[in-house]
Design a protein that fits this description.
Helix content: 40-55%
Shape: globular
Main location: cytoplasm
Radius of gyration: 21 Å
CATH superfamily of the largest domain: Aldolase class I
Function: Probably acts as a heme chaperone, transferring heme to an unknown acceptor. Binds one molecule of heme per monomer, possibly covalently. Binds 1 [4Fe-4S] cluster. The cluster is coordinated with 3 cysteines and an exchangeable S-adenosyl-L-methionine.
Strand order of the largest sheet: 7-8-6-5-4-3-2-1-9
Pfam families: HemN_C, Radical_SAM
Number of helices: 17
Distance between the termini: 25 Å
CATH class of the largest domain: Alpha Beta
Keywords: 4Fe-4S, Chaperone, Cytoplasm, Heme, Iron, Iron-sulfur, Metal-binding, Oxidoreductase, S-adenosyl-L-methionine
Subcellular location: Cytoplasm
CATH architecture of the largest domain: Alpha-Beta Barrel
Number of strands: 14
Structural class: alpha/beta
Number of domains: 2
C-alpha cells in the first residue's frame, strides 16, 4: 500500500487536510477491467484490442465476463498469499477496447463480482468507457441500475472529416444522445477528445472543444494524437498519404483547449484532463497518486506498493485466447512482474507528481535534486513560483507543454 510518510503522492489535496490525505491513500484500492473487443479497429489505435476477425476462434465476447470474474478470484487469492488484504474498492473502471460492446448484464456481472470478492465502498466511483455507437437510452439506464455512476464517451472530434480520418464511425449526434441519456439516468458523463489529427485545422479543433463544452459535461479529456508506426495511420503517414502530426500545431491546440476550458469553468487537474470542481475522475487520480490497483483482463497492468516489503508491478498476458487458457488452468494470467527499485520509484514520483495540479511535494522528492533546479524551472516559467514557495512543484501551462523535457532533466540527478 502507499506509505505515509515516505511514499508517493503526499502533497495535500486543496480541499482536504494532509492527515486525511495520508489515511485515505493508505486505504485506497482500485480495480481496472480491460475489455479487449471493438467493432472495428481505428486506424490510429495501438491499444490491446481485437475485432471478431482478429480473434478468429479465440476467446469469445459471450464468455468474457465469466473469465474476467474467474481472474478476479485468482488475483484475490494471489493478494492474500502475498500478504495483501486489499479492499474495499474505492473506484472501478471498465476500459478497452469498447466495454459497451458487451451486454449491460455482462458489465453488471463484473461489477457485482468485484463487490462480492473485495467489497465496493459506499459512494465509490464506477465508470465505463463507451463508444457512442454501442449504447442507447435503455443500455445506459441498465448501467445506472447496475450501480455505475459515470460514463466516458469516446467523442474524439466534432468535425466529420476529422472523425473520418480517425476511422471513427459515430457522429456528433450520437455523442449528444448518449450524454442526454446519461443525464436522465443520473450518471456523470465525460468525453475524450484527440487533437493533432492529420488535416485538422485550428478552427476544427476549436469547434470540437466548444462542442464538447456545449454538451454540458463536467469532465473533458484531451489527448495529443500519438502515431505508432505499426498502425494503419502510421503506415499511411510513412507512405506520405497523410501528413505527420506537428509538435507546434499540437502545442497551439493545447493552448486553445486550456483557454476555452478555463473560460468555461473547467480546471485542469492532470496534464490532459479538465473538470468542473468536484467532478475529477477519482480513478485516474488514483493512478497519478500511485495507489494500489488490480488490472483484470488481457494486457492489464497491476500495481502494489508493498508486496512483502517491495513495490511491485505486474501485467497480464495480452492475447485473449492465451489469457483465457491460463485462467482455465487456475493460474493468475500474469505475463510478467517486476520489483520497482528505489531509483525507479523516485523516477515515478517525478513523472506522476509533475502531471497533476496538486503537484509534487518537494520535501518528499529525491534529495539529490538540488533546490536550485526547482528554482530554475520556476524562473523559466515552467513551475508556478507561488506553489514553489509553499514547497510544491506545480507545472504552469508552459510547464505542462514541456513536461517530458522537464522531467528528463530532473531524472539526470537521480538516474
Amino acid at each position: 500500500m502507499v506509505r505515509c510518510p515516505g511514499g508517493f503522492g503526499r502533497a495535500p489535496l486543496m480541499s482536504y487536510s494532509s492527515e486525511w490525505r495520508c489515511a485515505r491513500l493508505e486505504t485506497m484500492f482500485e480495480v481496472y477491467v480491460h475489455v479487449p473487443f471493438c467493432l472495428r479497429r481505428c486506424g490510429y489505435c495501438d491499444f490491446n484490442t481485437y475485432t471478431a476477425r482478429d480473434l478468429g476462434n479465440g476467446a469469445s465476447r459471450e464468455g468474457y465476463a465469466h473469465q474476467a470474474i474467474q481472474e478476479m478470484r485468482l488475483v484475490r487469492q494471489w493478494q492474500l498469499d502475498h500478504g495483501l488484504d486489499e479492499g474495499p474498492v474505492s473506484t472501478v473502471f471498465l476500459g478497452g477496447g469498447t466495454p459497451t460492446i458487451l451486454t449491460p448484464s455482462n458489465l453488471a456481472a463484473m461489477v457485482q463480482a468485484i463487490d462480492g470478492i473485495w467489497g465496493i465502498e459506499a459512494g465509490a466511483e464506477i465508470t465505463t468507457e463507451a463508444n457512442p455507437d454501442t449504447v442507447d437510452a435503455d443500455y445506459i439506464q441498465a448501467l445506472a441500475d447496475a450501480g455505475f455512476t459515470r460514463i466516458s464517451f469516446g467523442m474524439q472530434s466534432a468535425v466529420p472529416h476529422v472523425l473520418h480520418t480517425l476511422d471513427r464511425t459515430h457522429t456528433p449526434a450520437n455523442v449528444e444522445a448518449g450524454i442526454n441519456a446519461a443525464n436522465r439516468a443520473g450518471l456523470r458523463s465525460s468525453v475524450d477528445l484527440i487533437y493533432g489529427t492529420p488535416g485538422e485545422s485550428l478552427d476544427d479543433w476549436r469547434t470540437s472543444v466548444k462542442t464538447a463544452i456545449a454538451l454540458g459535461v463536467n469532465h473533458i479529456s484531451a489527448y495529443a494524437l500519438t502515431v505508432e508506426p505499426t498502425t494503419t495511420m502510421g503506415r499511411r503517414i510513412a507512405a506520405g498519404v497523410l501528413p505527420k502530426p506537428d509538435d507546434d500545431d499540437e502545442a497551439a491546440k493545447y493552448d486553445i483547449a486550456d483557454t476555452l476550458l478555463t473560460q468555461a469553468g473547467f480546471d485542469w487537474y492532470e496534464v490532459s484532463n479538465w473538470a468542473k470542481p468536484g467532478y475529477e475522475s477519482r480513478h485516474n487520480l488514483g493512478y497519478w497518486r500511485n495507489v494500489d490497483w488490480a488490472g483484470i483482463g488481457p494486457g492489464a497492468h497491476s500495481h502494489y506498493g508493498d508486496v512483502q516489503g517491495s513495490a511491485v508491478r505486474a501485467w497480464d498476458i495480452t492475447h485473449p485466447k492465451v489469457w483465457a487458457q491460463a485462467i482455465n488452468e487456475g493460474r493468475v494470467p500474469f505475463a510478467g512482474s517486476e520489483t520497482i527499485s528505489a531509483t525507479e520509484q523516485a523516477e515515478e514520483q517525478l513523472m506522476l507528481g509533475l502531471r497533476i495540479r496538486e503537484g509534487l511535494d518537494i520535501a518528499q522528492a529525491d534529495a539529490r535534486i538540488p533546490q536550485a533546479a526547482w528554482r530554475q524551472f520556476a524562473d523559466e516559467g515552467l513551475l508556478d513560483p507561488r506553489a514553489l514557495n509553499e514547497g510544491r512543484a506545480v507545472p504552469t501551462r508552459r510547464g505542462r507543454l514541456l513536461n517530458d523535457a522537464m522531467i528528463m532533466q530532473l531524472m539526470e540527478y537521480i538516474s
